[in-house]
Every structure is written in structure tokens, then in C-alpha cells.
Design a protein that fits this description.
Elements lengths: L1 H14 L12 H8 L3 H13 L3 E4 L3 E4 L3 H15 L4 H22 L3 H16 L5 H16 L2 H24 L2 H19 L3 H19 L2
Antiparallel strand pairs: 1-2
Helix pairs in contact: 1-3, 2-3, 4-8, 5-7, 5-8, 5-10, 6-7, 6-9, 7-8, 9-10
């Protein structure tokens, strides 16, 4: 179909780095003339890309490559959960596996002095924090793991998955008793120390303990 040509054309421009995040797309007329297709087909292609979260429409200005493409992944996950094509268990298993991958990358690449300081400050905050801000600190610790990896694809995918996962985990942490919260603190410290000591077995053990505890409550 003609609209597929327009989508493929835009994707190739992205692959060739002619379009980047925030770039303005060619006009409907320009795309239609370049591909020798109808403007209605071009308009349909842009509507599809907008629906996917790939482009943003600015009234009176044009279409731009979205700066929040991870929102499209998040929306897709929410729809798939609602339709039953994936389950909470699927998301939890993926989240656990990807966190192990992130930590494995951190062991391989090492953590910068700057990030070591940030991790140590965050763990200290978690140790001293009151129960009402534990959820935010937990989120910030796992976001630090992602950012420290310095891998854009992992950050994008994990960021999208985390926004879905957080809706469940925030509720769990708020309801967790003091013993469970103390265990989570120990597991966070174990993950970080395992990375610093370059011990993947320890890291994976503490990741499993962390997610076993969370998922036991989520999936009840």
C-alpha cells in the first residue's frame, strides 16, 4: 500500500541519520511528490507514526521526531496487558532478566567515580529514609543502574517497562512491612557491591532475592 512506502521512507531517513530526535519531517506534499504517491496516503502514514508515538504534531509548524519514543513502548505494553496478550508475570520476568543484563554490562564496563558516588549516596538515603519516600528511592536506585550502563537502547526499553512495572511495585513497597523493607535495602546493597566487586553470581543472587520478594506480593 502507498502509505507503507511513506513509513519506510521516513524510517530510512532515520536510519541514515537524516532525521534525529527533534528533527522536523518533510511536509506531506514533499513526501508525496518524492515517492509519487497521494497526499492522503502520506497523511495516513504520518497518522500511524503519530499513533505509535514516533512523531509529534505541532499545530501550524509540522511534524517532528518525538523526544519521548519510550512512551510509545509503554503504551504498547499497557494495551497488550489490557488485551491479555502479555501478563504481569511476563513483564516481571522480562524486568528481572533485563536488570541482570544491565548489571552484567556494568561489571564489564565498570562504573565511573561519579556514579559510584551517586549510588553510595542513594543507598545511604535509603537506609535513613522514612517509609513514605522509600518508593521514590527504590525507583531512583534502579534508574541509576540504567543510566550508569550508558546504553541508549537499554535505557529506552527499560525506562518504558519500568513505568508499567512501577505502578505495581509502588503499591507493594507502600504496603510492605518493616522486615520486607529492610530486606530490600540489603538486596540493593548486595546488587551494588556485587557490581563493584565484579562478582556476577552475587549480583544475580541479590537481583533474584529482590524480585522474588516483590513478585511474591505483586502476583498474589
Amino acid at each position: 500500500m502507498e502509505y507503507e512506502k511513506a513509513i519506510e521512507y521516513i524510517f530510512k531517513m532515520i536510519q541514515n541519520e537524516e532525521l534525529k530526535v527533534g528533527s522536523k519531517l518533510p511536509t506531506e506534499r514533499s513526501i508525496a511528490e518524492t515517492l509519487n504517491i497521494g497526499r492522503n496516503s502520506t497523511r495516513e502514514a504520518l497518522s500511524i507514526l503519530h499513533g505509535m508515538g514516533m512523531i509529534d504534531r505541532v499545530q501550524g509548524s509540522g511534524n517532528y521526531i518525538s523526544e519521548t519514543t519510550n512512551d510509545a513502548i509503554r503504551q504498547m505494553l499497557i494495551i497488550m496487558l489490557a488485551l491479555g496478550t502479555i501478563t504481569k508475570k511476563d513483564v516481571c520476568e522480562f524486568r528481572r532478566a533485563m536488570e541482570k543484563a544491565v548489571c552484567g554490562l556494568l561489571i564489564e564496563k565498570g562504573i565511573s567515580k561519579e556514579y559510584k558516588t551517586l549510588f553510595e549516596e542513594k543507598l545511604d538515603e535509603m537506609y535513613k529514609a522514612s517509609a513514605d519516600i522509600q518508593t521514590n528511592l527504590d525507583k531512583e536506585f534502579h534508574e541509576l543502574l540504567m543510566r550508569a550502563s550508558d546504553n541508549t537502547l537499554l535505557i529506552t526499553i527499560m525506562g518504558a517497562v519500568m513505568t508499567v512495572y512501577r505502578e505495581w511495585i509502588d503499591l507493594v513497597i507502600r504496603k510492605a512491612d518493616a522486615q520486607a523493607k529492610q530486606k530490600l535495602q540489603i538486596y540493593h546493597e548486595g546488587i551494588y557491591n556485587g557490581i563493584i566487586r565484579q562478582n556476577p553470581e552475587d549480583v544475580n543472587t541479590f537481583i533474584d532475592k529482590h524480585y522474588d520478594l516483590i513478585e511474591e506480593l505483586i502476583l498474589l
